[in-house]
Amino acid sequence: MKTDELREKYLEFFVSKGCTRKGSDVLVPRWDPSVLFTPAGMNQFKDHFLGKCKLDFTRATTCQKCLRTGDIDNVGRTAYHHTFFEMLGNFSFGDYFKREAINWAWEFLTDKKWLGLPKDQLTVSVYLDDDEAAGIWQKDIGLSNDRIERMGEDDNFWPAGAPTSGPDGVCGPCSEIFFHPKGSKNVEIWNLVFTQFNRVGSPPNNLRPLPSKNIDTGMGLERIASIRTTTSTSCGRSWKRRPTSAAASTIRRATTDAACAELPTMCGPARLRCTRTCIRIRRSKATSFAGCSAARCSMAGKWACKVRSCTSS
Question: What are phi and psi of 55, to 5 degrees?
Fold first, then answer.
């Protein structure tokens, strides 16, 4: 399944659930002084969550272009962390809440009409004291207790650690969905955030209920694409052939792994690699690739840099 098809399937699914399809917001939100770049799909809906603007709709779905630097140290070190990516999301502003969000997420992931992922390869986590979400996973979806893990605010609250460490703003407990590839480490593929608080100041008593309970979910397009196509990285594959000058120029301008994956050539003599963005590697630096698991490549010659490994081209 191509990323374009997957993106459309997601948006089509949530439109069928009554969500209004909205476009991606700008990457640099000048109207929001709290962030330099748009970090998540919910950013354009902050005023909706806070009840500051008149609502023309109470359900929405988007595919938002995002840029994050918070976990930049993991970019190039793992197969799934990125800086720039597309975030699939569905939102509720005082409309549907936990039951619908959980049931619809499970339907989209497992129904053969949509993604058709094996149910026995999925597990979930919930916030420590979120008995409501745990009960829905157990009673509605049919998951056993050993497939529902309870975790603290650093793992199952959004933003992570918000009650104690901030930042101020809309927040809430969340439930994450994990896919377990056979013979490989589990991968978080979807985060369902139950946005019901506005954090103001330091604890205690700093979580103030919002005017209405809301839903904010996020699923990385590149990550779910890699799961759906059973590739080992979000980049999809490593590239070997020399690109034409035009193709090389296009690759250098690419800003998503999805964009990289659509191009027919990559790496090799062009000194290009694909981790999160496509970056030209200077010949003088050919013995050290930030995107490789090995810190240095001891062999000389022309190199192609795969995600996680160095190989001679």
Answer: -90, 125
SS3 state of residue 145? helix
Tally: H helices and E strands in the chain: 8, 13
pTM of the model: 0.70
Residue with tokens 């603007």: 53
Q: Which domains does the chain have, with CATH numbers?
A: 3-228 (3.30.930.10), 245-312 (no CATH)
Q: Could you give the angle at which helices 98-110 and 3-16 cross, rounded to 10 degrees? A: 140
What is the average per-residue pLDDT within 154-165? 93
Structure tokens at 281: 């590697």
Nearest to 218 by CA among 176, 270, 248, 253: 176
Query: Distance (Å, rounded) from C-alpha 27 to C-alpha 24?
Result: 9
Burial of 77 (0-12, 13-18, 19+ CB in 10 A): middle
Question: Token pair of 180, please?
Answer: 């377990």
DSSP string, 272-283: EEESSSEEE--G
Distance CA 115, CA 8 (A): 12
Structure tokens at 309: 């490994």
Q: Shortest CA distance to 89 belongs to which of 182, 187, 188, 20?
A: 20
- 131, two tokens: 């008995």
Q: Please measure the distance between the N-terminal and C-terminal CA atoms of the chain and give it in whole angstroms.
A: 29
| Span 58-97, pLDDT tens digits | 999 999 998 877 777 777 777 666 778 899 999 999 999 9
Write the CB contacts of 178 (distance below 8 Å, at least 6 apart in sequence): 122, 123, 124, 125, 186, 187, 188, 189
Classify the C-alpha dihedral 193-127-145-186 as positive or negative.
positive
